[in-house]
Design brief:
alpha+beta; four-stranded antiparallel sheet; globular; single chain; 168 residues
Length: 168
């Protein structure tokens, strides 16, 4: 009797198991691409005379690459990582989020959603093939628009979107 119940339970379990076709698929940002984007962003900022750190995260906000440029302040490691996390998690440029939060007081609470969220310019989502696969964050340049420009250089190096809108 116990054997029959065990066999019936196993059969029911096999019938309820999801097939491979039902599993979700998602694109993964290869570490080589993350590294290439980080180096390109750091190179742009260094060329422009800024001492920064650059972080690249995957779609889940997990760190894939981190570079602290020569002379960059220790705080830039955290700020670049949080900007990358924010851009990947919220799937928007952090400068855009900062503008929205400034114009819409209720959105100022966004930073309290997660300890890793930082609503300051310098973070961009990494979009490839219409899918957000990660985020890049730059911290340490003397202005969010300069951090954004360096992050954009990282995206350009790997053929990713979006293009940052120029402020007029």
């Amino acid at each position: 009797m116990k054997t029959l119940a065990l066999v019936a339970g196993l059969m029911l379990g096999f019938m309820q198991t999801a097939s491979a076709d039902e599993l979700l698929r998602e694109a993964v940002l290869p570490v080589a691409q993350a590294d290439k984007a980080a180096h390109a962003a750091l190179e742009k900022c260094t060329k422009d005379g800024y001492k920064v750190s650059v972080a690249v995260v995957d779609r889940a906000g997990v760190l894939r690459a981190l570079l602290r440029g020569d002379g960059a302040g220790p705080h830039t490691v955290s700020s670049s990582s949080k900007k990358a996390f924010t851009a990947a998690s919220l799937r928007r440029p952090t400068s855009e989020l900062a503008d929205l939060a400034a114009k819409t007081p209720v959105l100022q609470g966004l930073h309290r959603m997660d300890e890793n969220i930082l609503i300051l310019g310098g973070g961009l989502p990494i979009e490839i093939g219409g899918e957000v696969v990660g985020g890049i964050g730059v911290g340490g340049a003397p202005g969010a628009h300069l951090d954004d420009a360096c992050a954009q250089a990282g995206l350009d190096a790997i053929g990713a979107a979006p293009k940052v809108q120029e402020k007029k």
